[in-house]
Amino acid sequence: MAELRPISIMLYKRLLSYLRLIKQRPEGSPDNISSATIAHALGLNDVQVRKDLASVSSGGKPKIGYITKDLVSDLEHFLGHDNCSEAVLVGAGNLGKALISYENFENYGLKIVAAFDADPRLVGTSFKGLDVFSAERIPDLCRRLKVHIGIIAVPAARAQQACDALLEGGIMAVWNFAPVNLQVPESAVVRNEDMGASLALLMKSLKEKMSPPGENARTARPGRRRP
Amino acid sequence: MAELRPISIMLYKRLLSYLRLIKQRPEGSPDNISSATIAHALGLNDVQVRKDLASVSSGGKPKIGYITKDLVSDLEHFLGHDNCSEAVLVGAGNLGKALISYENFENYGLKIVAAFDADPRLVGTSFKGLDVFSAERIPDLCRRLKVHIGIIAVPAARAQQACDALLEGGIMAVWNFAPVNLQVPESAVVRNEDMGASLALLMKSLKEKMSPPGENARTARPGRRRP
DNA sequence: TAGATTGTTAATCGATTAACAATC
DNA sequence: TAGATTGTTAATCGATTAACAATC
Q: What is the pTM of this model?
């Protein structure tokens, strides 16, 4: 049951994908699920699924599998979705608005509590009930709101500046959507949402699919997704 | 020099990060760079950087390092940024508009050539020079434009439908921003841009940083980013 | 030459998978 | 009981790192 030491990013991602898969099952699905079913739906190995789940859940039952209800709560508990965290958003342009609109964040325990923008035309407006403040107020308001997560959704050229302001406001974790390498002190955590890199990966897979691996290929993995 | 067999996703991501780092260096930076410098800036091991680069470039020079100009072109060539690919976008809401505005995609060889939306108020409009067509025309226009990449930026509930239309139009690679597991045939490639999962990872790192690993921790990696 | 830096070989480490026993 | 399924142990595989020789 629940380990304490840091787990690998790959494992963490898989756990998240299990949770999402199970939560997404249509109404009226059986209330149990086997590791093989999960593995098949996600293109993974069933032993791996069982091993992953063993580190999280109270275990499945032979011939039955895992009780989805229990599994969901075990996963959520382990992944820490229980305690909601608050964040501020810098940049209320299209991307910022898209993030504000993204219904799904609350499922992951995130709530955006304030937005900032440097554009005076946006300052003072509100979007989906969220007020947009002047970027100058970032350090002050972050401190007052005692928020620890900052989201950067500004153009590349202004990202470092936004980051600095957030850090000044006591932000400890930065979620960066701008295509730049932010410089931050070691005390802070940065996660780059590098959409360019992500796109490149898609294009890479596509190319690999179109020009099949050839003689050299050894481990062309078979089917990943359901037809 | 340049391997042919499929390379690992982690390696591919690192190569992308090298490219981005080097391209981002300020004007007037030296025209050479050492593996140690790259490694330090990205929080990696320098041997790893050299090994990665060896698979891509014509090599560095002892005492000098790598010539950035050559390295950039080697990386770009290897990563396939040379040949630009075209894509269509489904969903011209805030997220869609943010993607259209994202200056950076062209650096990765992607051009969005058409946008679709189900909302009649958006159909017929254009944004940054890109026309928005009715979602009904997806299969037809995709075929006519001979596009192979589709981007899904619609709400979760409509994502599978959008995906089906794209597949009907001959799309082979789907970049999915909706928080659902799309069902696609094996012939297609899907990349899920799961922002919820990404957020969860950030929150995980933050938690790990705030409550230090404790006695159990064995390999707390030291410094990752510059102060 | 001495020092910095690359590139490679071998060792280590961690993650995945195969085989199989346990259990309902 | 027979069959399906879990959980675990051991083997495999791949990726990272350490040590060091090669080179400018």
A: 0.85
